[in-house]
Every structure is written in structure tokens, then in C-alpha cells.
């Protein structure tokens, strides 16, 4: 008997290995290069090297034999992702990437948060990498952004001004800058020589941050004047494809998002009545902010969130999920100053030596109402991002490293995290006073995102039945007013969100559209199996598929 061996998954794994050799951000995230002290090459030449790898991998994929369903899914994902990445690259988007969340400078800084720092040798690596920050920032500003500016490819002024403000926050850190604050965490066991190297590296990184700030404010910003916030339909479709893995009908998505906004708005008003009888929605939210359960103190809220995730793991394992031992560890963290307002998650290293982590930006606050945090941490932690992405990491040997790590599609992962919030509501976990209103507020935020993200970038008309500005064209100002009238989030958070949507077109819609795909897949599987449908078994199978784009997700989930 002749056995046909997979060629697709080894090709995908080889792509990950070669990409990690080119891009230290990938290597550090996966934990595959111990002692890696490189900084990202953010120059056009660094980007071109990745493009060449993408093209050569696509050519090899065309000749690779597909032997089973895992191969089929891997091949479709790899082809779709590489083609989407190259389309964005061919449009020159990397030459004008300035945004307030996960932009290139923030990616450089985040590397240090992912590095091993439990030994003196680890801190020596930190010092060497921190000393390379000036090279990375020069490649970003003096090479990539400058080339984009030469070609007339600019980020909008709103993005530039926001990032300048973030860099100011970095430079206002304790001891001189964020880099100095990080270097100061080195423990007593670190030698005087390494400590001196850390200080010098922090000085150099802070100076490079100041130089980048000056370039953005004094050179790039004047050149970018007149660049519109709206990117238009062509650029928007590129971004939406990259974030969703789907060719979307944007008119349908916009109309569906508006219908979801209307549906959730009615449910929120009913929930507000349960929170404070006789009160309208805004009054009920203010009541929860001022009088609802809250945690005082930054360290105290971090510990509270940690306990919440530990409890969720203990109670969900064996009942609604089978959680592998390495996945049972997740850490709650406080995000560094100068971060965007949205909480986020960082995945574990491939060997789980660095656990998955959730990150809370405090935005300078020291009191944290719980009504909005609970659903969010089910989203970021368990059963949300951590359970899915850490489970994928656990399965990397069975599928491929590509399917379970860098092949992640935002619409899949963010859709699962929204599904996880809904699941915890279905399971009766939202018992803290106001927690269910917080869940609905989070759902509403994601529905409004679909409307205003598409609306602003495509300059659509506000629907005729809108309570605000009906028939007018969406602008950032109208979107901010509308958002503020339909959200319990603080003003600083909403301001940050509007800038985020404008600077990362098509990403914000991936959450709610992804959840729609997950729910449709579950409904189809339940309908097909009838009384034999087992939710726990379906969860196990769904979390074992690895990454899929939204073009494929619902159909694959329906077969489980």
C-alpha cells in the first residue's frame, strides 16, 4: 500500500520558520529563537524580504499535494492569507502605517514585554535588543514613512497627532521614559556591567523615541496635511479582507450592523430598567459607574481579574470544555502607559514557557467599575482569546504551526471571543449587578463598529431612522457623537476607538461579523444533529480546526 504524506503542512511550517528568521516579532511571539536580541527591520527592504518569501511560498503551494481535510484547510488558509498580505503590500500600505494600536513602534516596545526576564542572561539579551531600538525606529521613519511620503502615501493627520501623544507618554515614564522604567525592573542578580548596558540602552531607546516623535510632528505631519481620514472603498476592501478572510458585501454588512444596533438597543433599554427601575439607559449606566460594584487600586483590579479567570477555568473545565493542562495558566497584566484604550491579549510561546496574558490599560484610572469589566475579561481570557489561541498552540504539532499561530484571522479569533461572551451569558455567569448590561454594552459597541467603520471610510449616509443626524454623511465627529450616545464607555476610550477605526480600516468590523459566522455554524451543526448535538463536543471540535477565514468558517463549523 502506498502512503501519501502531507506536503502542505510541512510547507506551512517551513514558511513560519523562514518568517521567524526574517522577522523577530514572529520569533519572539512564538518563542522559537532563544537569546534573540534582534529588533524588527521596519525598512522597505525588510518588508520586501517578507514579500519575496510570501511569493515563493505561494508558488510552492501550487504544486503541493493535499491529502486530507487538515491539508485542505491549511492550503486554503495559507493561500488566502498570503494573497491578502501581498495585495496590501502592493498598495504600499506598509509605507504609511501610523496608528494608535499595534502600530510599528508599539510592536517594537511590546517585544520587551514578551521576552524572558527571569535570569541575568535574559536581561543581557534585553539590553542588547533595547540598544537596537534606534535602528528599528530609523527604518520605520527615515526609510519607510519617508518613502511613503515621497510617493504621496500618507497617514491622516489625526493618526499622526495621536501617535505623537502616545510617544509623549512613553517619554514621561518613571525615571525618564518607559524604556528606563522597564530596565529598572532588572533584579539584584543582574551584574553591574549588564545594568550599565541596560541604562545606556534605555538612554538610546528614549532618545530614538524622541527623534521619532520630532520626525512625526515636525516633518511628517506637515507633509500629511490634507490626507483624508476616510480611505475609500478600494483601500477599505483590502483591509477588510486582511481582517476577515472574506470578500464581503459591504452594503449587506452595513445594513446588518444597523439592524443589530437596533436590536441590541432595545434589549439594553429593558436591561437598564432591571438595573434601576424607571431610569433611562444613560442614567442606569451612570448609576453603575458611581454606585455599582467596583475595585479600587490598579494592583487590586489586576488580582481581581486573575481570580476571575482562574475561577472560569476551574468551573468550565470538564463541563463545557476540556482544557489541556498548559492552557489552564493565564496571567492578568496591566498595560504600559501610552497604550491604546482597548484591553488586549498576548498568546503563549509555543512551549508555554511564557503563558498567555490579558492586558488592562488603566488610562490613568484607579477605580474600576465591574459592570463593564466582567464580559470583557471573558472575551480576553477564558473562554475567549486565551482558551482558543492557547488551545491552538497546544495543537500546533497536530495541525501546523501556521494554522495555529501566525495564520490567525481576526474575524475568526475576535468572533470566537464575542461568542465566548455570549456563551457566558447563556450559561448564567453574568450575576454581578450590572454585568449583563455591560455585556450588552460590549455587544452594542461591536455592532456600532460595523456601522461607523464602514460608514466613515465609505462616506455613507446615516440611516434615515437614526436618532442622530439621519441622512447626513458619516464623519468622525458624527461617529463620535453617535458612539457616545450609545455606549457606557468613558470618553477617552471612545476617542481612542474612533482614531483606531480610522487608522486600521476593516479591522473593527471583524468582531461582530466573526461572531455571526460562529453562531451560524453552531446553529447549523445543532440543526443537522438534532438531539444528538453535544455542545461540549462541538466546542472541542471547533477549537481543533485551527484558523479559518470567514469565507470558510461557517461551513466548516456546520460539519462538526
TrEMBL record:
Using the UniProt annotation, give all residue ranges assigned to the region (Disordered). Answer: 27-49
Biased-composition ranges for Basic and acidic residues? 34-49
Could you tell me which InterPro entries the record lists for this protein?
A: DUF885
From the Swiss-Prot or TrEMBL record, give the protein name.
Uncharacterized protein (DUF885 family)
Amino acid at each position: 500500500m502506498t502512503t501519501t504524506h502531507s506536503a502542505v503542512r510541512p510547507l506551512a511550517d517551513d514558511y513560519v520558520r523562514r518568517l521567524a528568521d526574517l522577522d523577530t516579532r514572529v520569533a519572539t511571539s512564538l518563542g522559537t529563537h532563544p537569546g534573540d536580541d534582534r529588533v524588527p527591520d521596519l525598512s522597505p527592504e525588510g518588508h520586501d524580504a517578507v514579500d519575496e518569501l510570501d511569493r515563493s511560498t505561494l508558488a510552492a503551494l501550487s504544486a503541493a499535494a493535499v491529502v486530507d481535510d487538515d491539508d485542505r484547510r491549511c492550503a486554503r488558509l495559507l493561500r488566502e492569507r498570503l494573497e491578502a498580505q501581498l495585495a496590501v503590500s502592493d498598495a504600499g500600505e506598509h509605507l504609511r502605517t501610523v496608528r494608535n494600536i499595534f502600530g510599528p513602534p508599539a510592536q517594537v516596545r511590546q517585544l520587551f514585554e514578551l521576552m524572558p526576564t527571569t535570569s541575568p542572561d535574559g536581561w543581557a539579551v534585553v539590553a542588547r535588543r533595547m540598544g537596537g531600538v534606534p535602528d528599528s525606529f530609523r527604518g520605520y521613519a527615515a526609510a519607510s514613512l519617508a518613502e511613503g511620503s515621497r510617493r504621496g502615501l500618507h497617514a491622516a493627520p489625526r493618526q499622526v497627532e495621536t501617535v505623537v501623544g502616545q510617544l509623549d507618554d512613553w517619554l514621561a515614564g518613571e525615571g525618564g521614559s518607559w524604556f528606563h522604567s522597564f530596565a529598572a525592573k532588572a533584579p539584584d542578580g543582574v551584574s553591574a556591567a549588564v545594568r550599565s548596558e541596560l541604562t545606556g540602552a534605555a538612554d538610546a531607546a528614549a532618545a530614538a523615541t524622541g527623534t521619532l516623535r520630532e520626525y512625526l510632528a515636525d516633518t511628517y505631519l506637515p507633509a500629511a496635511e490634507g490626507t483624508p481620514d476616510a480611505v475609500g472603498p478600494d483601500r477599505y476592501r483590502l483591509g477588510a479582507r486582511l481582517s476577515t478572510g472574506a470578500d464581503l458585501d459591504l452594503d449587506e454588512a452595513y445594513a446588518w450592523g444597523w439592524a443589530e444596533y437596533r436590536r441590541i438597543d432595545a434589549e439594553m433599554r429593558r436591561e437598564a430598567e432591571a438595573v434601576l427601575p424607571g431610569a433611562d439607559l444613560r442614567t442606569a449606566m451612570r448609576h453603575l459607574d458611581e454606585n455599582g460594584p467596583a475595585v479600587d487600586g490598579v494592583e487590586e483590579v489586576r488580582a481581581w481579574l486573575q481570580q476571575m479567570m482562574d475561577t472560569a477555568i476551574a468551573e468550565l473545565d470538564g463541563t463545557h470544555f476540556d482544557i489541556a493542562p498548559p492552557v489552564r495558566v493565564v496571567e492578568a497584566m496591566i498595560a504600559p502607559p501610552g497604550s491604546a484604550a482597548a484591553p488586549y491579549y498576548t498568546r503563549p510561546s509555543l512551549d508555554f514557557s511564557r503563558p498567555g496574558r490579558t492586558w488592562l490599560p488603566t488610562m490613568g484610572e484607579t477605580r474600576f467599575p465591574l459592570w463593564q469589566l466582567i464580559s470583557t475579561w471573558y472575551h480576553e481570557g477564558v473562554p475567549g482569546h486565551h482558551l482558543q489561541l492557547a488551545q491552538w498552540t497546544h495543537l500546533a504539532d497536530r495541525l501546523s504551526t501556521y494554522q495555529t499561530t501566525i495564520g490567525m484571522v481576526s474575524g475568526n479569533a475576535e468572533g470566537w471571543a464575542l461568542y465566548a461572551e455570549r456563551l457566558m451569558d447563556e450559561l448564567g455567569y453574568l450575576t454581578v449587578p450590572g454585568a449583563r448590561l455591560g455585556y450588552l454594552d460590549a455587544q452594542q459597541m461591536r455592532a456600532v463598529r460595523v456601522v461607523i467603520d464602514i460608514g466613515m471610510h465609505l462616506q455613507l449616509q446615516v440611516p434615515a431612522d437614526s436618532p442622530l443626524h439621519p441622512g447626513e454623511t458619516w464623519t468622525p465627529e458624527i461617529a463620535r457623537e453617535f458612539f457616545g450616545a450609545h455606549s457606557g464607555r468613558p470618553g477617552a476610550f471612545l476617542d481612542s476607538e474612533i482614531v483606531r477605526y480610522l487608522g486600521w480600516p476593516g479591522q473593527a468590523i471583524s468582531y461582530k461579523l466573526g461572531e455571526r459566522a460562529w453562531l451560524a455554524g453552531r446553529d447549523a451543526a445543532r440543526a443537522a444533529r438534532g438531539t444528538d448535538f453535544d455542545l461540549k463536543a462541538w466546542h472541542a471540535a471547533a477549537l481543533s480546526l485551527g484558523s479559518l477565514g470567514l469565507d470558510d468558517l461557517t461551513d466548516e463549523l456546520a460539519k462538526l
